[in-house]
Design brief:
Length: about 70
């Protein structure tokens, strides 16, 4: 067991998503300071975290098209 009591300035929430695919276990964790009232766990993962990943993918795709 680990603790962040001394190293983090305030409390954070950890949202875990686990799934089992043909490749095996696929756990994912998101650490946030957003309150549960403001952002539910499913919305945090699907609407914010995954959207950020998609945006990073499209930025990478755009950069690769601009190389000459």
């Amino acid at each position: 067991m680990w603790s962040t009591k001394d190293s983090w300035s305030h409390r954070r929430r950890i949202v875990a998503k686990t799934e089992w695919t043909t490749r095996g276990a696929n756990p994912r964790f998101v650490v946030t300071s957003l309150k549960p009232k403001r952002c539910a766990a499913r919305g945090l993962h699907e609407d914010l975290y995954c959207a950020r990943g998609y945006m990073e993918y499209w930025i990478k795709e755009m950069r690769s098209c601009c190389r000459f």
